């Protein structure tokens, strides 16, 4: 399956020196977002934008509608906690 992606790295973001832990955090957030798109919106086009404004780093990941049907519905549980069921609501 082909997944189209684009990256826009703003001039201010290129000039910004980030602490190593911030760089790692940003990389992990973008990686998780791309993984979610691939899993829940197969074939979607993805755009990643990173920029800086004042003292803030702006990171945006957007995707189009999926071109294919996902085998993993967005509300499905999966992974190590897949057998854990939500608790019933507490009535006051």
TrEMBL record:
Region feature Disordered, mapped onto this chain: 1-22, 63-92
GO MF entries: kinase activity
Protein name per Swiss-Prot or TrEMBL: Histidine kinase/HSP90-like ATPase domain-containing protein
Domain Histidine kinase/HSP90-like ATPase: from-to ranges: 22-66
Keywords: Kinase, Transferase, Two-component regulatory system
Organism: Streptomyces flaveus
Domain of life: Bacteria
Ranges of Basic and acidic residues composition bias in the record: 63-74
Gene Ontology biological process terms, A to Z: phosphorelay signal transduction system
Transmembrane segments: none
Gene3D superfamilies: Histidine kinase-like ATPase, C-terminal domain
């Amino acid at each position: 399956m082909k997944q189209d992606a684009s990256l826009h790295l703003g001039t201010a973001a290129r000039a910004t020196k980030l602490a190593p832990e911030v760089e790692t955090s940003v990389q992990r957030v973008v990686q998780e977002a791309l993984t979610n798109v691939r899993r829940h919106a197969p074939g979607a086009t993805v755009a990643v934008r990173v920029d800086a404004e004042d003292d803030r780093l702006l990171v945006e990941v957007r995707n189009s509608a999926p071109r294919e049907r996902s085998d993993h519905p967005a509300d499905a549980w999966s992974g190590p906690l897949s057998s854990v069921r939500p608790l019933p609501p507490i009535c006051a």
